[in-house]
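Here is an idea for our session: we take a single protein and study its fold together. To get us started, please write out a protein record for me. Start from the sequence, derive the backbone structure tokens from it, and show both lines together. Go ahead whenever you are ready, and we will take it from there:
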Amino acid sequence: MALFATINGQRVLTASLRVPYAGLWFVDVQLDQAVTVAGSAVVTLGGLELRGVVAPARSGAFQDRRRVRVVAGAGGWLTRCTARQMHNTQGVTLRSAVTSLAADVGETFDPTTLPGKLGSSYFIRQAAPASRVLEQLLGATPWWVDYQGVTRAGARPRVETPEQAYQLLDFDEREKVAELALDDPTAVVVGSVLRGRLERPLLVRELRVEMSKAALRASAVGEELAA
């Protein structure tokens, strides 16, 4: 089956997806007509579905073509949150502080992995960029947004990716970058462990996926694991 990409049902010519280990993924698409795309957006890349929001500052049209950037989630982490005071005589929990922040900026947060308390019966949230407040609350714990737009905290799960799911085209031993050909864009994710034709397994920590003329290529940046 031919690989194709769409945004809100409109067919696109090219798509370029960037997925970091922590924070927000984004995808740039190019349409062959200057149609208006704004607000919430669903980008499909073959069998992969990405839910996010159009970033107007990174989108625009030239002649009969339009380029659109879609950022993970609802766009709330890119906004400024309002000040808020929380009180609990038993101690304000990290879960309540984070979920209230997410709700206030319109994001969906999965709190299942959040531990413990903040250590105080009062928590005063300052008005500030929402992503910065989230990082302050989580400390060393990474946060990231999945393809369905849900924000999660904690290490990304490791996934053993079978060798037949990709073709290794090249590997840069110094930069730890694997160049891959894919038929299925869901086959390799951040957290994938790649083993095929590599001296040591590679744990993917950043993923770049390019689709053009129905061809799919990926660059997986990672760290080598013990064999």
Q: What stands out?
A: Residues 94-104 form the longest helix (11 residues). The two ends are 36 Å apart (CA to CA). Residues 5-72 form one domain. The helical segments are 94-104, 130-138.
